Amino acid sequence: MDKLEIARDWLPRYTGMPVDQFGSHILLTNFASYVERFAERFGCAISGEGLPMQAATSEEGITIINFGIGTANAATVMDLLVAVEPKSVLFLGKCGGLKHSSEIGHFILPIAAIRGEGTSDEYFPPLMPALPSFELHKVVSDEIDRRDLEYRTGVVYTTNRRVWEHDRAFLDKMRGLTSIAVDMETATIFIVGHANSIARGALLLVSDVPLRPEGIKTQETDRVVTATWSDVHLEIGIDSVRRIAEEALEVKHFRF
After folding, report:
1. What pLDDT score does 256 carry?
2. Helices 71-80 and 186-195: crossing angle, nearest 10°?
3. CATH of the domain at 147
4. Domain that holds residue 30
5. According to DSSP H, which parts of 27-183 are helical?
6. Does any domain span residue 253?
7. What percent of the chain has pLDDT over 70?
8. Looking at residue 178, what is its pLDDT?
């Protein structure tokens, strides 16, 4: 079996959704609640209950996938999406804000990601930059501006490590890199998307500010973030890929 045959077989195995039911524009997320809200909004069924990933597709051809957490899952879903040859893939994730100007509820539109996770090294040498597709991010920025919301651009640091907030050396490393935010998936999505010639982007929601002792995420603070900002986060994602579809915008992929 070649890669395409494997992807066509495995994508339904992971999501419970037949390949021909996927739309041309994909939203990726780590959160089951985003898929549930998407399904409620469009009145569509959720596939993949009890499987590693859950997915739903609207009548207008937008699919959302909850692929789980971490770079291994991010790489897997970006590899499997070659089965449907999506025209755009937008990741809606959360991140930790690393700048003094970062506030919970701000949006981050990464211009690049530092590959601190290691997973992307399986695809390209470490010096290859992890970049989004510019045209896709331009549409997302327009949708944020249309709502008069705060957002920042900058470089995100992606790591495989989850529990590091206690580690002084790691915190100092974050400060030294001058990254705007830290997350666990963005660099991998950008690199594997590039490897598979998939137009990709990320819109991250600042859910904590971990360089401040009082800013470390807890169950309670995360519930507040989700309740307050997740609806508009999802809405921006939907409207961004919908605009690309409705205006037949071509988000080109260039090899570099």
Report:
1. 44
2. 30
3. 3.40.50.1580
4. 3-246
5. 32-42, 71-80, 134-146, 168-177
6. no
7. 95
8. 86
Q: Summarize pLDDT for 171-216 with one digit per residue, the tens.
A: 888 888 889 999 999 999 999 999 999 999 999 999 888 777 666 7
Question: Among residues 156, 149, 174, which one has the least CA distance to residue 109?
Answer: 156
One-letter identity of residue 138:
K
Question: How many domains is the chain built from?
Answer: 1
Altogether, the residues listed in the chain come to a count of 256
Checking if the pLDDT of 226 tops 90, the result is no
Q: Which residue has the tokens 């739309």?
A: 23
Q: Would you say residue 256 lies in a domain?
A: no
CA separation for the pair 159, 102 (Å, rounded): 19
CA distance 101 to 120: 29
- Please name the residues in contact with 1: beta carbons below 8 A apart, sequence gap of 6 or more: 9
3-state percent helix, strand, coil for the chain, nearest multiple of 5? 40, 20, 35
- What element of type H or E holds 175? helix 168-177
Q: Are 116 and 53 in contact (CB under 8 A)?
A: no
pTM over 0.85: yes
More confident residue, 251 or 36: 36
The gap from C-alpha 195 to its chain's centroid, in whole angstroms, comes to 16
Gyration radius from the chain CA atoms: 17
Question: Cβ(61)–Cβ(176) under 8 Å?
Answer: no
Distance (Å, whole) CA 30 – CA 91: 9
- Any idea which residue has 């705007």 for tokens? 180
